[in-house]
Amino acid sequence: MAKYKDIEPTDAVSVVRELLVDVDAGLAWIKQLSPNILERDLNRVTKAETKLNQQRELRSLLQSQLAGRQRILFSRPAIKWPDLGQSLRGRKVTQMLAQAVPVTVLLNVITIPIIYCIAILTGIYAARHRGKWFDIASGFTMIALWSFPVILAGVLLISYLANKQYLWWFPTAGLHSLEADSMRFLPAFTGNGFERGYLLDTIWHLVLPVFCLTYGGFAVLSKLMRGSVLDNIRSDYVRTVRAKGVSEHDVLFRHVFRNSLLPLITVAASIIPALFVGSVIVENIFSIPGMGKLGVEAAFMKDRELLMGTTLIGGLIGLASEIMRDVLYAMADPRVSYE
Fold it and tell me: Is residue 82 in a domain?
């Protein structure tokens, strides 16, 4: 207590007064600062709550979508004709393919039998007369035909056989003449002379495109048929048949022919899709409104739906050729079974 004896009352009052002033200033500063702190904290809390609500909404939306995918609703037919979309031309892709695919199928339905008939006949005859003039000439011709590009062949055929300045035996483009709709179906003689009719007019327009699709195919298959026949002629069962006195014609067509077809059937799974690919070139050269021409136009126009539709049809054709090969293989060779 001794150290406070020297403090006078007036001094003590002034000290207390200064302390009260400092306390009042501090309270004023705190009062001024606290609303800013509270407002800032309130903004943080509000943002956090908003973000939390957004996360909850997003989670509930994802859960509802997942729940919808796990359910199968049969309010409409579960299986229906596939919708391939709409082309950039404003038409449905299925309608455009329905018009183009039959044209390409017609070309190949005519081409495939011609290829196999020519290949089988020339291959058998060349194998039967091995080393003679026909075997040598046919071998040279088949290799030359196989080496000749289809594009050049089509351009040369149009330039010489469909040109008014040269032979002009065939039309240059299309499947029908302009007046084909007014023609009768079969050819006939009328008062104005001979009228070729709708059927003959179509065949007349198909001669050059079918030739371009055909010559490369039978050139390959003819050499393949020749080699297969020669392999079977040297077999032991052929020697046995000949020893029994069977004629050469029966040996060739009743025994050798059936086994010689197996390589041609195997190759059919690849040559049929190859013909449809070749239709792309031929249809564009001769302006035939088929699937190949449609696919090329879709690629140039960047028409995604139409291009995907033509690709789908090509895949289905490849699948069908594989199935057909297996069926024909079982028909040609009784030893083959799929049980």
Answer: no
